[in-house]
Amino acid sequence: MKLMGLDVGSRTVGIAISDALGWTAQGVEIIPINEEEKVFGLDRVAELVKEHDVQGFVVGLPKNMNNSLGPRAAASQHYGEMLTDQFGLPVDFEDERLTTVEAERMLVEQADTSRRKRKKVIDKLAAGLILQNYLDRHGKLTREK
C-alpha cells in the first residue's frame, strides 16, 4: 500500500511517496500553492495519486515545542480535510517538529548544498522525512505486536 507524505506550507507542499511495501519514502516534488488566494495544488496531487496508486496520506503536523497546536498546524489539518473530501482516502498526521531543520542540516552537512539549491528541495526532503518517520513508527508497532 503506497502512501503519500505531505509537508504543507503556505507557499509550497512537499510531496513524498512510499514504496509499495511501506518501508521507504522518497521525495517526489514540490507543488506551489497560495493559501491567501485559495490555490492548494490539489489537481497536481490528484495526478500523483493516480500515477503512484496512492492509498492514503500522511500530512506533517507542525506542533509547537510544548506539544500545542498553532496556526500552521490548523492549516495542515485543513489541508488534510481537503484531501479527505476530494479523494476519500485515509489521512493520518505525523508530528513534524524539526523535520525542516533536520532536512536543512542534511543538505548542508552531507550534501554541501548551496542556500539557493536548498530552497528548491527542502520541502520535498522534509516530506520524505515526515513519511519515513511515520513508516518507521508504524512498522515498529506492527513488529512489536
Q: How many strand elements?
A: 5
Radius of gyration: 15 Å
Mean pLDDT: 85
Globular, elongated, flat, extended or rod-shaped: what is the shape?
globular
Query: What structural class do you assign from the helix and strand content?
Result: alpha/beta
CATH superfamily: YqgF/RNase H-like domain
Most strands sheet: 5 strands, mixed
**Which residue ranges are poorly predicted, with pLDDT under 50 across at least 5 consecutive positions?**
141-145
Can you tag this structure with a few keywords?
alpha/beta, single chain, 145 residues, disordered C terminus, Nucleotidyltransferase, domain 5, globular
Verbal overview:
The chain is α/β, with parallel strands linked by helices. It has a single domain (2-144), classed as 2-Layer Sandwich (Nucleotidyltransferase, domain 5). The protein is built from 4 helices and 5 strands, in the order E-E-E-H-E-H-E-H-H. The chain has helices at 42-52, 71-87, 99-109, 115-144, and strands at 2-8, 12-18, 25-32, 54-61, 91-95. Strands 3-2-1-4-5 form a 5-stranded mixed beta sheet. It is globular. Residues 141-145 have low confidence and may be disordered.
What are the SSEs and their pairings?
Elements: E1 2-8, E2 12-18, E3 25-32, H1 42-52, E4 54-61, H2 71-87, E5 91-95, H3 99-109, H4 115-144
